[in-house]
Specification:
By secondary structure, this protein is of the alpha/beta class. The chain is built from 7 helices and 7 strands; from the N terminus they run βαβαβαβαβαβαβα. The longest helix is centred in the middle third of the chain and has 14 residues, at about 75-90.
């Protein structure tokens, strides 16, 4: 699987969860300095400029993923458009994107593009771990459409 913006705190959580579940992970960064850290976390790191269509196309093509997780939809539709074009060119069948929108009618153009091309969009739920879990399940189940992450069982039990 291919993870954009994999070098931050959230990216590290996603890399760890995917690696533990047996996925081969390619995670992107904008800094060569982060490649060693990504390797320590269990991912193949690749430098990519998400605003550059050629960089995105070359990186996705070289990674040859079966799924893409896109965490950078807030950075603009152009980067998402580049990623979706690269996914199509490389034959990647599934894209999951994180959205900052709190409701389906407030999706950014970037998140809407992922949704309209048959991908999955994870809406925020207030719990990072729940969003990470929802993302992993969306990849593994090839989920399509809008996803609201559910609270973990421990949260439900604590609320009782």
């Amino acid at each position: 699987m291919f993870l954009t913006d994999g070098d931050g705190a959230v990216g590290r959580l996603l890399v760890a969860r995917f690696v533990v579940r047996g996925h081969r992970v390619t995670a992107t960064t904008t800094s060569e300095d982060m490649l060693d850290a990504l390797a320590r976390w269990g991912a193949r790191g690749m430098v990519m400029d998400g605003r550059d269509a050629v960089s995105v196309g070359v990186t996705v093509g070289a990674a040859r993923p079966d799924s893409i997780v896109h965490r950078t939809t807030a950075r603009g539709a152009a980067g998402t458009d580049h990623l979706l074009a690269a996914a199509q060119a490389a034959g990647v069948p599934h894209v999951v994107a994180w959205s900052d929108a709190t409701a389906p009618h407030r999706l950014s153009d970037a998140a809407r593009a992922v949704f309209e091309t048959g991908g999955a969009v994870v809406l925020p739920c207030g719990r990072l771990d729940a969003a990470v879990s929802a993302t992993v399940l969306a990849v593994e189940r090839r989920t399509k459409g809008l996803l609201r992450c559910a609270p973990h069982r421990a949260d439900e039990e604590a609320a009782r």
